[in-house]
Design goal:
Number of helices: 4
Largest sheet: none
Shape: extended
Number of strands: 0
Radius of gyration: 18 Å
Length: 92
Amino acid sequence: SFIERLSPANKRLLGIVLACLSGVLYGFTFTPALYVQDNYENASQNALDYVFSLYTGIFVSSITYFVIYCILKRNKPVIYSNVILPGLISGW
């Protein structure tokens, strides 16, 4: 794959760039809720009121993308077992 052909230094640089991009995107997680709170008169000002819908949407989207991926791979998805535990921990 593309990543396997990179040198170790380029892999590290790519990892750092992707980690920074991920951090920026995580930082924008509550932007829609803040927009609603600021721009709609009857919107709840309690940020916790938006958490359930946000994370339910993320959960449903993740499942949908994984199901589509499994369909495209004809029920033979590539899953790297050494990233399952770190992924679960970061998600929690």
